[in-house]
Design a protein that fits this description.
The chain is of the alpha+beta class. The protein is 48% helix and 19% strand. The chain contains 12 helices and 11 strands. The strands form 2 sheets. A 6-stranded antiparallel sheet has the order 2-3-10-5-8-11, covered by helices on one side. A hairpin with a 2-residue loop joins strand 6 and strand 7. Helix 3 packs antiparallel against helix 4. The longest helix has 20 residues.
Length: 326
C-alpha cells in the first residue's frame, strides 16, 4: 500500500478571513458535525436520499486507500484527512474543503480520528449539467492571470456560508418528502458559491465546451472504459482534438500522471478487485486487465501496493476478517 512520505509536496492554502464571527462558524460546524454523527452512527459511509450526497465517519485513523475520486466537494467538519495526488499531498480539516474537478486516482487517509471525536465529513458530487446552466447565467469571476496548467484537485476555504448551505441540505434528510423538490435548489446554490470562489476557475473550465479540462475529462472517461486495451497516446490525443505534446502536458498537470501511468493505475486496481472479490488468481487477473507478462504485472503491482499480489490479497482478507470479528 502506498504511504505518504516526506518527499511529497504538501499543498497548502492559508485560510483568509471570511468576515464570519468565530463563534458563528464554530456553531455551524458543530451543528453539522452533530447531524453527520447521528446519521453515520454504526457505519463508516451513509448514502443519503439526496442524490450525490454521502456522509462519512471514521472512529480511528485509517490506512492509506487507493480510490478514484470523481468531480466532487469533500467537506470535513471534524478531524482531518489527507489526499495524495501524484507527489502532491493535500491536508484538509474543518477549515478547508477539497475540490476535485474530474475523475482522479488518489490515495486517501483519515489522519485525525478518535472514538470520542470521530472524523466526520460529507461529499457532494458535482452535477455537470447544473454547473453548465450556472455558467450561462452567472457573471464569470476574473480569470486573467490564472495558470492554464492547474491540478485537478484544489483546496478551498470553508466559509460560514458553505457550512450554512450544507447544514440546510443535511437537515432535509429529516423531511424526505421535501428532498426531490428542495435538494436540487440547495445543491445548485452550493455549486454557485463554489463557482464564484477562488477555486471556481476549475469548475468554469470543467463546464466550458472545448476547454482543455473538458477534453482531458473525455480522455479519462475513455481510459476508464478501455483500460485493458493497448494505449496509443497520439490516437487518444487526436480523439479529443489536442496535439500529443499539449495533451500530455495538460493530462499530467491535471492528474499528476502520464496517460500510461493513469492506465496502469486503473489496471492494477481492477486486478486487485478481481482477486479480492471474485477469487481470481494473479496470473488470470493480470491478463484480464491487459497485461501480457505476469512478471511485469507482479513488479508493478508491488510498487503500487507495497507487496506482491498474493501476499497483498492475503493481508487484506485477514484484515477484513479481523475487522468483522470485532
Amino acid at each position: 500500500m502506498r504511504h505518504f512520505s516526506r518527499g511529497e509536496r504538501e499543498v497548502k492554502q492559508e485560510r483568509p478571513s471570511s468576515g464570519a464571527q468565530p463563534d458563528t462558524f464554530e456553531a455551524l460546524r458543530a451543528a453539522l458535525a452533530q447531524r453527520i454523527a447521528r446519521w453515520t452512527d454504526g457505519t463508516e459511509q451513509f448514502d443519503t436520499a439526496v442524490p450525490g450526497l454521502t456522509l462519512y465517519r471514521h472512529d480511528e485513523p485509517t490506512e492509506p486507500m487507493n480510490c478514484m475520486v470523481g468531480p466532487s466537494i469533500a467537506l470535513t467538519v471534524q478531524g482531518a484527512k489527507r489526499a495524495l495526488l501524484g507527489e502532491h499531498a493535500y491536508s484538509y480539516h474543518s477549515g478547508r474543503f477539497l475540490l476535485a474537478a474530474l475523475n482522479l486516482p488518489v490515495v486517501l487517509q483519515a489522519v485525525e480520528a478518535h472514538p470520542d471525536r470521530p472524523y466526520l465529513s460529507l461529499v457532494l458530487t458535482l452535477d455537470a449539467r447544473s454547473i453548465a446552466e450556472l455558467v450561462l447565467q452567472a457573471e464569470p469571476p476574473a480569470l486573467e492571470g490564472q495558470a492554464s496548467l492547474m491540478p485537478g484537485l484544489v483546496l478551498g476555504e470553508t466559509t460560514e456560508k458553505l457550512l450554512e448551505l450544507f447544514l440546510r441540505l443535511v437537515d432535509l434528510l429529516d423531511d424526505p418528502a421535501a428532498v426531490p423538490v428542495l435538494a436540487p435548489l440547495m445543491c445548485k446554490e452550493i455549486f454557485y458559491r463554489l463557482l464564484m470562489s477562488e477555486q471556481g476557475v476549475q469548475l468554469w473550465q470543467m463546464a466550458s465546451a472545448g476547454s482543455h479540462n473538458q477534453r482531458i475529462a473525455r480522455a479519462i472517461e475513455w481510459l476508464k472504459l478501455n483500460f485493458a486495451q493497448p494505449l496509443r497516446v497520439e490516437a487518444l490525443a487526436a480523439d479529443v482534438q489536442m496535439s500529443p505534446s499539449r495533451f500530455r502536458r495538460h493530462f499530467r498537470a491535471l492528474t499528476a500522471m502520464s496517460p500510461l501511468q493513469f492506465q496502469k493505475w486503473l489496471r492494477l486496481n481492477e486486478a486487485r478487485r478481481l482477486m479480492l472479490s471474485e477469487g481470481i488468481d494473479a496470473s488470470s487477473a493480470s491478463f484480464q486487465v491487459g497485461y501480457q507478462s505476469p512478471s511485469q504485472f507482479s513488479r508493478e503491482y508491488g510498487r503500487l501496493f507495497g507487496a506482491p499480489p498474493r501476499r497483498d490479497v492475503q493481508d487484506l482478507r485477514q484484515k477484513t476478517s479481523a475487522d468483522a470479528a470485532r
